[in-house]
Every structure is written in C-alpha cells, then in structure tokens.
Amino acid sequence: MNKQNKIIVFESKAIRRVWRKDEWWFSIVDVVSALTDSLDAGAYWRKLKQRLLEEGSQVVTNCHGLKL
Does the residue 35 lie in any domain? Predict the structure, then answer.
C-alpha cells in the first residue's frame, strides 16, 4: 500500500509523521507539544529524556533526531 507522509492534527496541533517500513513514525516533539502545551517542546523532551536516563529507564535510546 502506498502511504503518503502527512501532517495530522490533534487538538489543533500539527503532528508530523512519515510512513516507513510499513509503520507510521511520529515526531515526538510534536506529540509532546500537543500533550503538554509546553512553550518549548524540544526542551521539555530533552529534560524528560535526561530524567528517564537518570532513573535507569530503558524507554529512550541513544539516537539523533531525524529531519522530517
């Protein structure tokens, strides 16, 4: 099935996504922005990752953000 890369809207917030290897990949910064109403969603996500790593959480991986 041919999928298109599209922006979707959640509660009036745009969320970028890409169809890759039969899966949707979403921009976590856009999701954080939509869920938290943070003024700086990137800073919010970086701080959350730092706290999770300090707690020993395996939720996040060592990878760089991709350009969408």
Answer: yes
Residue 31's domain comprises: 7-54
pTM recorded for the entire structure: 0.67
Asked if residues 30 and 45 have their Cβ atoms less than 8 Å apart, the reply is: no
Residue 38 lies in a domain: yes
b/e map of 35-48 (b: 16 or more CB within 10 Å)?
eeeeeebeebbeeb
pLDDT 10s per residue in the chain (68 long)?
456 667 777 777 888 888 888 888 888 888 888 888 888 998 998 898 889 889 988 766 666 666 66
